[in-house]
Write a structure and sequence with these properties.
The chain is α/β, with parallel strands linked by helices. The chain is built from ten helices and eight strands. Helix 8 links the parallel strand 7 and strand 8.
């Protein structure tokens, strides 16, 4: 499926690429990719399943490349100056310019944390639009302590025997000499295999690149952050769904404590790491559809 509309924002400080899939007049969902410093492409095609669920009117899915990544890299902005506040400000302007109201935010990984930061600013009256619903898919850790745990666990997995065996297998396959493009594809998959409950399932992934300076700048801007210790964070009143893979290297306790603070619905997917739209798509999308279904 190709997007029916693409464009660049005109109200943000630098132009941000955006695209829309699905029904042009359907319910609109704004999807936030991970990173920071990445782009939306790697969520495709799997996330497009939300555009035409069974028994529900078709929806319009909106994606945009966050500043400093993908098609939203600009010479006008120094990549090392992008902060979490930059992303929140950009998101507010994207919402207003594309007229995404009522506002349902679906955030994956870093995009989940961005959705929470935006909702926190809305609760404090610092942005002009409040989310009506939040869907957080394996959100990035809600505190620096949990992020440190994630970084150690992901590094351990990447150096573990399962991923190392896959690297040895690739090196001995002769694929580099036979088909350099397929070799690069497989090398990318192994670079993220530690995110999976079973590293052998890191196949048929859409490659993506992360702009390192943007990623570093955003995380540095968060400092020793802890959303759970922020009283304003607990005043977020948008109905919230959190879906988390039990084998995600991001600690499950991060999402558990976030769900408790926000009185959110938490769905834990077994035999699933950080990539539920690949590892457990039925469990993920069934949970989202139940949450989005009209109440009463």
């Amino acid at each position: 499926m190709n997007p029916h509309t693409v464009g660049f924002t005109s109200t943000t400080d630098v132009p941000l690429y955006w695209c829309a899939y699905g029904a042009e007049k359907g319910e609109r969902l704004l999807i936030l990719h991970g990173g920071p410093g990445a782009h939306h492409d790697y969520l495709l095609p799997q996330m497009l399943r939300l555009s035409a669920p069974k028994g529900v009117d078709a929806r319009e899915l909106l994606f945009y490349d966050q500043r400093g990544g993908g098609r939203s890299r600009s010479d006008k902005e120094r990549e090392g100056d992008v902060t979490w506040q930059t992303h929140v400000r950009d998101l507010e302007r994207v919402i207003i310019e594309l007229d995404v109201r009522p506002l349902t935010l679906i955030g994956y990984s870093w995009g989940g944390l961005l959705a929470l930061l935006f909702a926190r600013q809305a609760a404090a009256g610092l942005v002009s639009v409040k989310p009506s619903r939040l869907i957080l898919i394996d959100p990035a850790p809600v505190s620096r302590r949990f992020r440190d745990q994630f970084e150690r666990e992901f590094a351990r997995r990447q150096e573990g025997p399962e991923v190392q065996a896959l690297r040895v297998e690739l090196a001995a396959s002769g694929l580099r000499e036979r088909d350099l493009e397929k070799y690069r594809q497989r090398s990318f998959e192994l670079s993220v295999a530690g995110y999976f409950a079973d590293p052998r399932k890191a196949h048929d992934l859409t490659p993506f690149r992360v702009t390192g300076r943007v990623q570093q700048s955003v995380w540095e801007s968060l400092g020793d952050y802890d959303l759970l210790a922020d009283p304003t964070f607990r005043t977020i009143d948008a109905p919230t769904l959190i879906v988390h893979g039990r084998q995600d290297p991001i600690p499950l306790v991060s999402s558990e404590q976030c769900a408790s603070a926000l009185h959110a619905t938490l769905v834990v997917l077994d035999q699933c790491g950080h990539v539920p739209y690949v590892e457990q798509p039925d469990g993920l999308f069934d949970a989202i559809e139940r949450f989005l279904a009209p109440k009463g």
